[in-house]
Amino acid sequence: MKGTNDLWREAVRDVRPLRGGRPGNSAGPPGEADIAPARVERVRTASPPLPPLDRFAGIDRANAERLKRGLHRIEARLDLHGMTQAEAHGALSAFIASSRVAGRRCVLVITGRGFGQSGPGVLKSSVPRWLEEPELRRHILAIAPAQPQHGGPGATYLLLRRR
């Protein structure tokens, strides 16, 4: 039977260090002190990556504050209550596309709070992930949680890009 060190050496025998990385000790399995933080390498792409939605990139401070405070006029609402994930994802994509074509600037997406035994509801946790998908993300300038009068934690403001 092989010992832990033998198994470790066998598992890492083909591993090569990253360019510019610091040499490590491969004598045995890593301890907590031996684990280096993960390195992030930049990959060049044809187009620059989109900024994260929560940073309000592309809008000035005054517009960001107006969005956060719910002061933009809400031009359309989408209520996802009672939909399956597939239905909600399709409805969200169609809603954003049609709102953009109609020239709408600020829209409200209602997911509901979705408190359950296992934490937040499925749609409440899925919608932010869907909004980061490239086909939706390219239409959205900023996003903010809704104010209580518009649904609070169960709704989200979207500021759409101009056509």
Would you report the number of β strands? 4
Number of domains: 2
Termini Cα gap: 67 Å
* CATH class division of the largest domain: Alpha Beta
Largest sheet: spatial strand order: 1-2-4-3
The SSE order reads HHEHEHHEE
Overall geometry: elongated
Q: Sheet bearing the most strands, described? A: 4 strands, mixed
- Taking all residues together, what is the mean pLDDT? 78
CATH fold call of the largest domain: Ribosomal Protein S8, Chain: A, domain 1
Low-confidence stretches: 32-48, 50-54
Q: Evaluate the radius of gyration.
A: 23 Å
Tally of alpha and pi helices: 5
Structural class of the helices, strands and pairings?
A: alpha+beta
Assigned CATH architecture of the largest domain: 2-Layer Sandwich
Strand content: 5-15%
- How helix-rich are the residues, as a percent range? 25-40%
Write a short abstract of this structure.
The chain is an alpha+beta fold and 163 residues long. It folds into 2 domains: 4-34, no CATH class; 53-160, Ribosomal Protein S8, Chain: A, domain 1. Helices cover 29% and strands 13% of the residues.
Report on this model:
- Helix 3 (85-101) packs across helix 4 (122-131).
- With 163 residues, the protein is of the alpha+beta class.
- The chain has helices spanning 4-11, 61-68, 85-101, 122-131, 134-137; strands spanning 76-79, 106-110, 140-145, 155-160.
- The chain has a four-stranded mixed sheet, sandwiched between helices.
- The chain is built from five helices and four strands.
- It folds into two domains: 4-34, no CATH class; 53-160, Ribosomal Protein S8, Chain: A, domain 1, CATH 3.30.1370.110.
- The longest helix is centred in the middle third of the chain and has 17 residues, at 85-101.
- It starts with a helix and ends with a strand.
- 17% of the residues are buried.
